[in-house]
């Protein structure tokens, strides 16, 4: 007992005894037959403790005082002719089952200590049954959560939009979008190391720190981040692009269609500019648009694209279109679409990146997909140079031949 209460295991054991009708955390309800047999043996001169021990009710478990109270109460019931009324070890009456005095039981029957053919081993079986029931409940909850995540990813993949509406970084960051901060979700290394990253309550699937560290260790070994121009498609939390900026990139363009996520990225960009590690010549820009729409229609854009106010210096800013009207390619392109984004759509996006001139020889495309998805097919002149799996995530590195 703990603090005067029976544990789950103790209650399970007590319920195996034929002398016991039911058990709560604090009380034991005895059978009428046991009470009658107990008083018969008591009047024959046997010790109450021995009688209870023979029935499996060890005094070390239920306590001497409980045994003494039972004997005193049942003696009073005998004198009043109420022995067949069910009483409990406390002070309250349980039920009013009046019946004939039961036939006496021999001590040997109680020494068996089991109800029907059950044994003390049933206790472990009962606990295992409880654990199995709990596991089934958890499995159902996990399945429900998985279905909800898939629904959110599908909705995010279908959600389109134009450029963000006019407003400052502060107003964008203070929208009514529900916000959460993932545990340890921060910039891992570089000039902005430790910067906290926020994510919308739904619609985003942030890259894990393990996967992110593996990606950037490889990119740094290839020396492609220093002063790089980075395009982050399906930006989500903006973590990949911001990590690249922290590790040496100079220019970052993040594309995100969902309003809550885009608002939070805009707020993070404002924090970056106020950070002491921010350097002259660095640039961050945010475009709220579906990634595939942005890439497919990019060569049809005018020379200067309207940017989110506050996400670039005043005045018209060139995006990937240079002063001569030619497209300026990116050094690193991150593609981290929802898992619901089809492989066919992914292949079209890769082809559009190549034909638009946003990706050229020397560009490294980092594509994240589910390990259960079909292998992507890069366009002619491009190939997957490496693939690494991290749990559910498959990371493909795609370069020009």
Write structural notes for this entry.
- With 401 residues, the protein is α/β, with parallel strands linked by helices.
- The chain has 2 domains: 8-120, no CATH class; 159-400, Vaccinia Virus protein VP39 (Rossmann fold, 3-Layer(aba) Sandwich).
- The chain is rod-shaped, with a radius of gyration of 36 Å.
- The chain contains 13 helices and 11 strands.
Question: Could you list some keywords that capture this structure?
Answer:
401 residues; Rossmann fold; 2 domains; 7-stranded mixed β-sheet; two-stranded antiparallel sheet; 11 strands
Please describe the topology of this protein.
Elements: H1 8-14, E1 20-23, E2 28-30, H2 32-43, H3 48-54, H4 59-62, H5 64-80, H6 107-112, H7 122-158, H8 169-173, E3 179-180, E4 199-200, H9 209-221, E5 229-233, H10 239-246, E6 251-255, H11 259-274, E7 283-287, H12 291-296, E8 332-335, H13 343-356, E9 364-370, E10 382-390, E11 393-400
